[in-house]
Amino acid sequence: MDPVDPGGGGVRAKGANFVGFRSAVRELFGEQAWGCVLAEASSELRAFMTGGGLKTGDWYSVASYRALHAAAATALPMEPDLARRIGHAAMCSDLSGIYRVITYFLSPHSLVARAAPIFGTYWEGAQMQIERLGRSHVRVHLQGCHGFDRRIWSDIFGGIVASLEQSGAREVTLEVLSGCGDEPACSLDIRWQLAS
Q1: Going residue by residue through the chain (196 aa), what tens digit of pLDDT does each one get?
Q2: Protein fold of 100-194
Q3: What is the H or E stretch that residue 30 is in?
Q4: Burial class of residue 97 in the structure, from the number of CB atoms within 10 Å of its CB (0-12 exposed, 13-18 middle, 19+ buried)
Q5: N or C end: fewer C-beta atoms under 10 angstroms in the chain?
Q6: Distance between CA atoms of 160 and 158, rounded to whole angstroms?
Q7: Domain edges within the chain
Q8: Where are the beta strands (DSSP E) in 8-117?
């Protein structure tokens, strides 16, 4: 059962997003900070995150993930680029575990070719399209991301950068071309340097 939006609808977030979020906050800021985030969350969300109901492979409304980010922003207001740092750390954790094979055998260019289906394993109902502009330059279009806000977009940006870095990219830059606010679409220009 979804702690924020029991009716569901729209984009749904894989439980792995919530597990990664929790791990990232603990890793970056410590257990006390995670306790502060939980204190800012609703009682339903707090019970969901601590009571054993969260399943890595299940799907939950994006509203719950948005609420978790809002709680973190309130609990840790002095942390710069908080959502992006959480997304980056969560993806690094994912890619050092069971998904390590994805980046171990793939160059950044090859990883980009597989990005759309990988994105779909985290966000049900959202779509990613890749426009290749060179060996180290792509344009990414994300659509159907109903319920996303600036914090979730920033989280995703951190995950994109982490994915490319884990596959060997250096000096990854990400430029927002359009959207990426409260609207359900976002276009990005992403560039990186190849490791020598």
Answers
A1: 566 665 555 699 999 999 999 999 999 999 999 999 999 999 999 999 998 889 999 999 999 999 999 999 999 999 999 999 999 999 998 877 655 555 555 788 788 888 899 899 999 999 999 998 888 999 999 999 999 999 999 999 999 999 999 888 999 999 999 999 999 999 999 999 987 6
A2: H-NOX domain (3.90.1520)
A3: none
A4: exposed
A5: C
A6: 5
A7: 12-87, 100-194
A8: 12-14, 59-61
